[in-house]
């Protein structure tokens, strides 16, 4: 029983899905394959060769942009995109990985899904899960999804703290594990171990977000310091921020970006600003250049007059800043003022920058 609980509780970050729509009780599988396949620890666990890693990255270039932009779409549309991209990725991996590597990857996916591995049709088939069992478990997961959505909403509205929300999400996850274990027969429980294999430490994973979309050159003008391509900045850490110079919230973040440039440029940080206009004045190259000068901006700045990069990145608000690691993967982002109402966002982002520079 202890090993069974361990196998079911080895859940990847985000196992408690929040993507089920309120009027559709069917729960969804979180995108664990999309999340895990980019991480070095997974590559090492699968014993991927350098050529295989290069082929995996080539596939990620195709799927990561649509996956990242899907985050701003309605839940049902988002899940449909995730499902399609997961299928595309899985099909490509079949041609890249050996049978032994594919088998281990399947085990890792099941571990990452935790209790929700029973939603996988292959797991259902091998465990011989009955319709009555699935009805009970699907109802459990759907209720967890609904509660998770409510918690996220309460967090965004300031009714609960992040700690309170995380504690209840953890309780939901534990409840799922307990109910799944109780719902399975002894025979089904015994069949679980071969499906999950040797436990893997998912806390060792660093990358779970997409590759940073390449900068779009269409309709843009480099105000200073360009042109740049993110692909040319491999080996550097990049802080890429979207702003509008007349936006007061953006202006309050600008001194932080300037400080990052001043403190870390010689250690390998590249700060890039993308001015995406909201007003007619912000479309004027002269006014953008003048504002950059008056704000003391010394790093590269692009005028994204047609908002092509804004759309490619799936932005929804000014300001937004992304941190990109040395291999080109997004590692963290922040929307809005970093130090809004006492929030220590700049401190947190700075800590991430230092971590990425060390790695």
Characteristics of this structure?
359 residues; 6 strands; alpha/beta; globular; 15 helices; Glutaredoxin; six-stranded mixed beta sheet
Instruction: Give the overall shape.
Output: globular
- The class by helix and strand makeup works out as alpha/beta
Rounded average pLDDT: 91
Spans where pLDDT lies below 50 across 5 or more residues: 1-25
Strand content: 5-15%
Terminal-residue CA separation: 39 Å
DSSP helix fraction: 40-55%
Strand order of the largest sheet: 1-4-3-2-5-6
Order of helices and strands: HHHHHHHHHHHEEHEHEHEEH
Radius of gyration: 22 Å
Main sheet?
6 strands, mixed
How many β strands by DSSP?
Answer: 6
Count of folded domains: 2
| Tally of individual helices | 15
Domain Thioredoxin: 206-358
Protein name: Thiol-disulfide oxidoreductase ResA
Keywords: Coiled coil, Signal
InterPro entries: AhpC/TSA, Thioredoxin-like_sf, Thioredoxin_domain, Thioredoxin_ResA/DsbE_sf
List the helices and strands and how they pair.
Blueprint (H helix, E strand, L loop, with lengths): L1 H8 L22 H5 L3 H7 L3 H20 L5 H22 L2 H15 L7 H7 L3 H26 L5 H22 L2 H5 L1 H5 L23 E5 L12 E7 L4 H17 L4 E7 L9 H10 L6 E4 L3 H5 L7 E5 L5 E6 L9 H14 L1
Parallel strand pairs: 2-3, 3-4
Antiparallel strand pairs: 1-4, 2-5, 5-6
Helix pairs in contact: 1-9, 4-5, 8-9
